[in-house]
Amino acid sequence: MITTVTLNAAIDKTYYVPRLSPESVMRVRRVFAEPGGKGINVARVAHQLGHEVQAAGFIGGHNGRFIRQELDRQGLRHDFIEIEGESRICLNIIDESDGSSTELLEPGPVVDAEAMERLTVKLRRLAAQSRVVCLSGSLPAGVPAGFYAELIGLAKREGAAVFLDTSGEALLRGAEAAPQLIKPNEAELAQLIGRPIGQSPADIAEQLASLSPERMSAACITVSLGADGSLTYYGGAYYRTYAPRIEAVNTVGCGDAFIAGMAVCMAEDLPIEEALRLATAAGSANALNEKAGYVNPEQVRELLTQVAVERLQ
């Protein structure tokens, strides 16, 4: 089983407008509203890929009830902690004239110490039943930067491999707890290294190589290159993954779909090259879907044949 943890769950709303024009009245052509937050997106894609999944984390208020009801409707198992306050709404506005997107992210509710303790108790039980635990997304107000590191240690003691996908101080602290996988982007990699990095894949590979096990104890570090794929360190080797060339309609949730593909392969003990292929195909399939955190399994299978993975010397 894969368990995902979303500390700052959301309703993800997507508005499609003919042209985004500030200081004007715009008519929305289409609206989507779905349970969201990075961990929920991971859970949904892993479920669509045919794996057993349990989604956990914090939800609250009317928006929290919507999240529960929609996950029930989608057949996705969940075990959330109910908290005071209202789960947030995250708005993605798609400009149909050029395909660009503008995101507006609410901060979310405040989480108290009692709720955090309840989550640690719950996660201990879920981690003992899981091959992989995915910790994804931002920290809500009230949650300290070291909380992910605490959850990583807890889940590892129960025998689960832990993936961490976050940013800022939470990523820096969490990486020190030796998760199985982290997925920084280029800016976050610069944070981890403590200095600016070059923009080319060769520059990024060189910076990845500078992360010694003593400084960065994650077994797998994968850096997204957007539409160009990713660079990954795993098991003492470096891998360049090339993504399919597609006409993307939505880029929100692609990283979450990538994490889902990696988690499915890790849970099934598949080789790293196969994991990178599935993860990249899933991320690309998400980009072909108007909803974040959704893939068509048939599209994933088609895209798998278009993904190339190269082991670097």
UniProtKB/TrEMBL annotation:
Entry-linked InterPro entries: 1-PFruKinase (IPR022463), PfkB_dom (IPR011611), Ribokinase-like (IPR029056), Tagatose/fructose_Pkinase (IPR017583)
Pathway linked to the protein: Carbohydrate metabolism; D-tagatose 6-phosphate degradation; D-glyceraldehyde 3-phosphate and glycerone phosphate from D-tagatose 6-phosphate: step 1/2
GO biological processes: carbohydrate catabolic process; D-tagatose 6-phosphate catabolic process; lactose metabolic process; small molecule metabolic process
EC number assigned by the record: 2.7.1.144
PANTHER family xrefs: 1-PHOSPHOFRUCTOKINASE, 1-PHOSPHOFRUCTOKINASE-RELATED
A cellular-component GO term for this protein: cytosol
Designated name of the protein: Tagatose-6-phosphate kinase
Stretches assigned to the Carbohydrate kinase PfkB domain: 9-297
Reaction equations catalysed: D-tagatofuranose 6-phosphate + ATP = D-tagatofuranose 1,6-bisphosphate + ADP + H(+)
Alphabetically ordered keywords of this record: ATP-binding, Kinase, Lactose metabolism, Nucleotide-binding, Transferase
GO MF entry, a single one: ATP binding
Family membership: Belongs to the carbohydrate kinase pfkB family. Belongs to the carbohydrate kinase PfkB family. LacC subfamily.
Domain of life: Bacteria
